[in-house]
Design brief:
The protein is of the alpha/beta class and about 300 residues long. It folds into two domains: about 160 residues, 3-Layer(aba) Sandwich (Rossmann fold); about 110 residues. The protein is built from 13 helices and eight strands. An eight-stranded mixed sheet has the order 3-2-1-4-5-6-7-8, covered by helices on one side. Helix 11 runs parallel beside helix 13 and helix 12 packs antiparallel against helix 13. The protein starts with 13 loop residues before the first strand and ends in a 13-residue tail after the last helix. It comes from Pandoraea captiosa. It holds the Pfam family Rossmann-like. This is NADP oxidoreductase.
C-alpha cells in the first residue's frame, strides 16, 4: 500500500533557512507573485534582517543552535534551504517538517536524497533550482522572471512548486533523480564557464597591449550579438568565424600564434574549435572536407584521451 502525502495549500506560506543571494531573490520574487514569506532564518542575524526588511510582514530569525531552525516550520508551510551545498545534509538532520509541510533545497548539484532525514516526521522534500546567475543585484528578484527552474519532487509537492515557478514568471523543468551532477555541470557552461571564456579573450587582447578595460568594453557587442543570434537561429545557425567558413588556414595560424605564447591557450582554443566543428556539421550543406581539414589542424594541440581500463 502506497502512502499518499497530505496536500499542501495551493499557495503555501514560504520560509527560508539561509539569507544569501538566492534567498533574497527567491523570497522577493515569490512576494511579488503574491506569496506570503513570513520568516527568514540565518546564523547571521544581520543577513536575515536585511532580507526580511525588503519583504512585507517578514520575521528575521537568528539561528544560534541547529535546533533553532525548526522554528521556521511554525511560520511556513514550505521551507527553502538556501545554504551552501556542504551544509544541506547536516541541516536536514535537525529539521522535522510535518506531513503537511515540505523542505526544499535550491542546489543544482546536490541530490534531493540529502534531505531524507527530514522526512522522519512525514515531511515532504524536493529540489527547486533556478537556472539564473544570482549576482546580488537589487533587481535580481525582478530579473529572475523568464528563467527556467528545475524541479524535483513527488506529488503533491511537485504541483505546488510547479505553480510557484509559474507564478514567478519562470518556466519549470524536470530532471530524473540521480542526474544532478551532469545537469549542474551543464549549467556551469552557460554561466561561470562563459565568464572564463571572456577572461581568456581579455588575456589574449592584453597580451598584444590592449588595456583590459578597453578589451572588456569591446567584447560586449560581440557577446550580446552572439547570444541574440543564438536565440533567434539556434546554436549551429549562429556559429560564425573561421570554422563556420571552413577556413582551415586561419585556424592553423590561430593555433600557431597561441602555441607561441606558451601555457594552455592553444589547447583551450583547439578543444573549443572541436566543438565548433560539431556545430558546423549540423548546418545544411556543411562542407565536411573543409571541417575535416580543420580537425587535422587542431589535432596536435588536443591532449590524447586516456584509454578505458577494464574493471
Amino acid at each position: 500500500m502506497t502512502l499518499t502525502s497530505p496536500p499542501l495549500p495551493p499557495r503555501p506560506t514560504l520560509g527560508f533557512i539561509g539569507a544569501g543571494r538566492v534567498a533574497s531573490a527567491l523570497a522577493g520574487a515569490a512576494a511579488r507573485a503574491g506569496y506570503e514569506v513570513p520568516v527568514i532564518a540565518s546564523r547571521r542575524g544581520e543577513n536575515a534582517e536585511r532580507v526580511a526588511a525588503a519583504l512585507r510582514n517578514c520575521h528575521a530569525l537568528t539561528i544560534d543552535r541547529p535546533g533553532d531552525m525548526n522554528a521556521v516550520f511554525s511560520r511556513a508551510d514550505v521551507v527553502f534551504l538556501t545554504v551552501p551545498d556542504d551544509a544541506i545534509a547536516e541541516c536536514a538532520c535537525y529539521l522535522t517538517p510535518r506531513a503537511d509541510q515540505a523542505l526544499v533545497h535550491c542546489s543544482g548539484a546536490s541530490e534531493v536524497g540529502l534531505l531524507t532525514r527530514a522526512t522522519k516526521s512525514g515531511g515532504q522534500i524536493g529540489g527547486f533550482h533556478p537556472l539564473f546567475l544570482f549576482a546580488g543585484l537589487d533587481d535580481d528578484a525582478t530579473r529572475l522572471a523568464g528563467s527556467a527552474i528545475t524541479i524535483e519532487a513527488e506529488a503533491p509537492l511537485n504541483e505546488v512548486l510547479q505553480r510557484l515557478a509559474s507564478d514567478m514568471g519562470c518556466r519549470a523543468l524536470s530532471i530524473p533523480a540521480g542526474e544532478r551532477m551532469r545537469y549542474h555541470a551543464g549549467a556551469n557552461y552557460a554561466a561561470s564557464f562563459l565568464l572564463c571564456l571572456l577572461d581568456e579573450a581579455t588575456q589574449l587582447w592584453k597580451a598584444i597591449g590592449l588595456p583590459a578595460e578597453d578589451a572588456r568594453e569591446a567584447m560586449w557587442p560581440l557577446v550580446m550579438g552572439t547570444l541574440n543570434a543564438a536565440r533567434e537561429r539556434g546554436l549551429s545557425g549562429a556559429l560564425a568565424g573561421p570554422v563556420s567558413r571552413g577556413d582551415a588556414g586561419i585556424v592553423t595560424r590561430h593555433t600557431e600564434a597561441l602555441a607561441a605564447m606558451g601555457g594552455n591557450h592553444a589547447t583551450l582554443y583547439s578543444l573549443l574549435t572541436q566543438r565548433a566543428i560539431h556545430l558546423a556539421r549540423q548546418r545544411p550543406n556543411a562542407d565536411d572536407r573543409a571541417l575535416d581539414a580543420i580537425a587535422r589542424a587542431i589535432a596536435p594541440y588536443i591532449p590524447p584521451v586516456a584509454p578505458e581500463h577494464d574493471a
